[in-house]
């Protein structure tokens, strides 16, 4: 089995840290519906157990919406866990680009040994028909304050982890072109949850335009469809289209565990990904399963 680097997963200790979305009532609206099953500790030992069959050689922690009052506390905690457990091997920390402390937080995060990138989910609209290319929604990628914080990433050398639905990818393209020195790593394939013909056409067109920016990479992850089992046949069209558009050298797989554990097992997702890309040349498979992540997050090459 070819080696795997999981480029996007979480761990959390609900006894040691505060995660408002996991611990507060009522639960927030969530794309997979009821997520109360996630209200349990999930640590490196749990990830290793879930990934036991997958030849996992390294992993990348993604910020888990820890208490925004102190984003650096999460980073320090992850470093402590990694020192004890050997996982994760790199991480994406949190920042709030439209806050007055954005530059200071970026600088502090960049000084942490495991931090390679930062995430701040930009504001947007919930439906493609509500999107307006001229919008200036506060906290969005078009927001002047948000963009003023974003510009500090280039100086830090950190990448930006972007989680946004596909109808906001035009904003992402403008961001990529305006700040070419900063790599954007699109999380979860741009969230193609709507698999209708119209939904897939909109997603494909948006991804095709975004692929023109050479500083954008894509995580083949988080593409579960609410209410449907994770099956290779269901996911193959979006995964292979992303690989066709961006090339294997800009694509990487990730589990989004334990969140995507609401929909499928770790093996179902990763075995499915291996099936989907099985007809690609072995060099492309290796890039997607580990090589792109190793290069992007500065991990030892498998």
UniProtKB/TrEMBL annotation:
Pfam families: Amidohydro_2 (PF04909). It comes from the Bacteria. InterPro entries: Amidohydro-rel, Metal_Hydrolase, Metallo-dep_Lactonases. Residues 5-299 form the Amidohydrolase-related domain. Gene3D superfamilies: Metal-dependent hydrolases. Belongs to the metallo-dependent hydrolases superfamily. PANTHER family: AMIDOHYDROLASE, BLL3371 PROTEIN. This is Amidohydrolase family protein.
């Amino acid at each position: 089995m070819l080696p795997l680097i999981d480029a996007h997963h979480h761990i959390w200790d609900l006894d040691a840290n505060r995660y408002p979305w996991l611990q507060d009532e009522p639960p927030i609206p969530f794309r997979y519906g009821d997520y109360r099953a996630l209200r349990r500790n999930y640590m490196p030992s749990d990830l290793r157990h879930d990934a036991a069959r997958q030849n996992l050689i390294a992993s990348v922690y993604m910020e888990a919406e820890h208490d925004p009052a102190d984003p650096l506390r999460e980073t320090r905690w992850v470093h402590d866990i990694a020192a004890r457990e050997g996982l994760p091997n790199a991480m994406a920390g949190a920042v709030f680009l439209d806050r007055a402390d954005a530059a200071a937080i970026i600088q502090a995060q960049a000084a942490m040994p495991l931090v390679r990138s930062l995430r701040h989910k930009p504001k947007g609209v919930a439906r493609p028909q509500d999107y307006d290319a001229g919008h200036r929604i506060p906290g969005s990628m078009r927001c002047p304050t948000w963009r003023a914080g974003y510009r500090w990433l280039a100086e830090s050398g950190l990448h930006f982890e972007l989680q946004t639905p596909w109808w906001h990818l035009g904003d992402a393209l403008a961001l990529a072109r305006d700040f070419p020195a900063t790599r954007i790593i699109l999380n979860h394939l741009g969230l193609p949850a709507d698999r209708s013909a119209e939904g897939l056409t909109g997603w494909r067109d948006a991804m095709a335009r975004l692929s023109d920016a050479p500083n954008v990479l894509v995580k083949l992850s988080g593409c579960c469809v609410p209410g449907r089992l994770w099956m290779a046949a269901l996911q193959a069209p979006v995964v292979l289209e992303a690989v066709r558009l961006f090339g294997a050298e800009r694509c990487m797989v990730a589990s989004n565990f334990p969140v995507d554990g609401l929909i499928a097992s770790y093996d179902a997702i990763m075995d499915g990904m291996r099936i989907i890309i099985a007809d690609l040349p072995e060099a492309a498979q290796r890039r997607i399963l580990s090589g792109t992540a190793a290069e992007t997050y500065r991990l030892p090459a498998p």
